[in-house]
Design brief:
Layout: E1 6-10, H1 16-25, E2 36-39, H2 42-45, E3 48-53, H3 58-67, H4 71-83, E4 89-93, H5 95-100, E5 101-104, E6 118-123, E7 134-138, E8 149-153, E9 158-162, E10 172-177, H6 186-193, E11 205-210, E12 213-216, H7 228-238
Parallel strand pairs: 1-2, 1-3, 3-4, 4-12, 5-6
Antiparallel strand pairs: 6-9, 7-8, 10-11, 11-12
Amino acid sequence: MDSRHAVGVLALQGSFAEHIAALEAVTTSAGKHVPVVAVRTPADLARCRALIIPGGESTTISLLIRKSGLYDPLKEFVALAKRGDGQRSIWGTCAGMILLAKEIDGPTSEGWEGFDGMDVRVARNQFGRQLQSFSHSVQLPFLPSDAPLLATFIRAPILHSVLPPSASSPLVKPLARVPTSLLPSTKRALSATGGQLTLGPDAEVVMYRQGDLLACSWHPELNKGETRVHEWWLREMVLHENDT
């Protein structure tokens, strides 16, 4: 690992303030806090060993990334995190999940561009419009079975399918699922997106990782006082405290 010590949150649009608050509340296994940076420029990103791309509006975030000069350094950051060798880590939530996907199922707006990241195809907003927002308990493998996490889905994307991994890339590993009964019907999915979309074979997966890239379709930062996922990500995928 190089000399970068801070954890960043991309602070161009969306719920970045809530992620910053959650990160500032968690500690390492030694009980220490890690510096947190609101990333708005390449210089901010250069301080960071890890980054959260928050929920928000993926097209707007993409355009602001371009205007801020962050696209190229972020693309390099993603490529390093994908290798899974501890150099970098990125966690994309909701809109961040879309930006990290290699492929988008359906049309994208002019100016949208992701980072050719995780080997997945993702459908934007397929869980429905704002009125279809909902919360549901999800079981995560790193949390006790008797203490699931309440996940909040707001205009959330859906994982369409896992793609064959790129050369020398680790596999995509599902971490959490929701019951198929919570998935939108074809009619609802079409009305929510305006495109001819269908649910893919991996639609029930709502959290997954590839190397040191992590993505989830819900907003973990919106549950006030609930920082277990942020703590796990920091210790497991940023600091690699459990590596032997």
